[in-house]
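Quick one: Putative oxalyl-CoA decarboxylase from Mycobacterium bohemicum DSM 44277, structure tokens please.
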Amino acid sequence: MLGKGAAYAQADEAIRNFVERSGIPYLPMSMAKGLLPDSHPQSAAAARSLAIARADAVLLVGARLNWLLGHGDSPQWAPGAKFVQVDIAASELDSNQPIAAPLVGDIASVMTALCDAVAAHPITVAAEWTTELGDRKSRNDATMRERLAENPHPMRFYNALGAIREVLQANPDAYLVNEGANALDLARNVIDMQLPRHRLDTGTWGVMGIGMGYAIAAAVETGKPVVAVEGDSAFGFSGMEVETICRYRLPVTVVVLNNGGVYRGDEAAAGASGSDPAPTVLNAHARHELIAQAFGGKGYHANTPSELRSALVEAIASQGPSVIDCQLDPAAGVESGHLAGLNPASAAAPPAALSAGG
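--- reply ---
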């Protein structure tokens, strides 16, 4: 399991050598994507749930057993799974699960030592395990291709992300910034990364509003094209930084996936009037691209995957600031993070009916 700590360590060669010499399947956390190309044959990303549920031994490389990994608990993880943790901070060991073999040190040194050990004592990965993962990957990949090939009107998340994926495959050196609810959850699975440290997202704390700052920093630091894929709610936290992007003519393209707010944003709030929009509802017909035009950037409005694809190609080629408003079905989306089971039950009892004498 490769975490963002593995990406930060810049120990790419040592990590790749260990993975390939050992033959062990691997899973990248979102900001570790690209340490090895997502197309690497040992990637188990398309069979993530199975890999986690069935593994009896897990090597954590710069990854921590926090809420993103279900704290290492069953049923998400196999009961009795043994964890080996490579981490720079000894204080992180045993924080959520007992660590069977703690390896404290910088990742480059530890992984180099493990590579030497594998050379001296070769590891054999069970063929049954890799075959089981391979079969699940094939089925899930086929399902994903079917979803991406659909062409509903209006668009839904998978259709828009499929168009973005095609363009970014042709621009592997572009940096991807990603924040939102469904915009984040689904982009993580759909958009492959080929290079390390080219994906920036909300990370462990899930903080919304970091997108525009990350995009500006990536553009200034690298001079490479940056594509920020934003949910419309997430974009609202820092959207006025488009002015900064335009003022400095940065090579940043912002794609706003506009489904009118969080989840099913067309639901009305329960209240006395019964007609007020819920607090999470936004204007499903907002034209976010006009923000770029207001400050001298380019604006595009896309209603179909073809229009989105063409707009993104043109925006990246312009090497300047752009915003693409991508119109999605307002009913598109589900609750983010698959965490609905953790939502607290309401403690407020329904008001009792008043009696005639009350």
